[in-house]
Amino acid sequence: MKDSPQTADAYDLPHGRPPEGNNFAAIRAVTGFQLNRLMTKPRIAMGLVGALFPAAVMFAVIRTAPINRDMTVAMIYALIPEALCVLGLLVTMCPVVADELERGTWIHVTVRPGGRQSLLLGTFAAAVIWTGGVSLVSLILTLLIAQPTQPIGLVVMFTVLIGISCIGRAALFAVPAVILPKRALIASVGVALVVEYFAGLLPAVVNQVTVSLRLRSLLVEWMAWRKDLPIEMTLFVDDYSAPVQIAAVCILVCILLTTAGFILNRRQFPPSVEN
Q1: Cα 54 to chain centroid, rounded
Q2: Which residues make Cβ contacts (< 8 Å) with residue 155, sequence separation at least 6?
Q3: What is the torsion angle, in degrees rounded to the nearest 10, for the CA atoms of residue 255, residue 216, residue 50 and residue 170?
Q4: Which is nearest to 72 in space by CA: 175, 143, 141, 166?
Q5: Would you list the domain boundaries of the chain?
Q6: How high is the mean pLDDT of the chain?
Q7: What is the per-residue pLDDT across 169-205, written as a single tens digit (0 to 9) for each?
Q8: pTM for the predicted model, two decimal places
């Protein structure tokens, strides 16, 4: 099995070894390498198409009939934090292990101190940065077309929602990506559908561990929609304050990344899988 020198070097640190007890430089190196992988012409084209899609939908809708500010916000929420962010993360986070197996570089990850954790966290950071960047471009384009009132406030609000969506969903997709690396995309789509879009809409305790509940609750609070919600719709949002909602996502992300890291540290792949 021949390793790619370029890929192998991505997991090396300046001066060849990680500082004792500190893998930050390794994570940063992997993040930069993964971002370089994402800056190919096909990926840039895919990102551009993704960024333009919500703007195109908004353009088509407002050409058909005028919509008010609340409807504009609801559409942007559905198209970007809920749809575009998820699709971008499926493409960027799912191959965290599969790419190394395909390129024959998994051995380089396993022999370096902290290599597996650096791979996981570096890919996580790159997926969040790339998807968040595409989503922010899409947000600006969509707002320019919709031209709602008080656009600066919407930019700030949606920037936070995009960040939460990217961080939370990237951590969520990390778990199936390390459990089933060769089928990570299919497994992550299943997780997104079952956990985020099915369990997240159940008015039960299970929806407390979903990112979608937190995003909806923040949107309703920041748009001051709660007092106007029909009684049945209040079952799908939380009454907790924004800091509590954000803290809940941070705790969930820590749990998911810790779980993924624990699993990844114990994964062993036979030579037939690595080749």
Answers
A1: 17
A2: 139, 140, 143
A3: 0
A4: 143
A5: 5-274
A6: 84
A7: 999 999 998 888 888 888 889 888 888 877 766 766 6
A8: 0.86
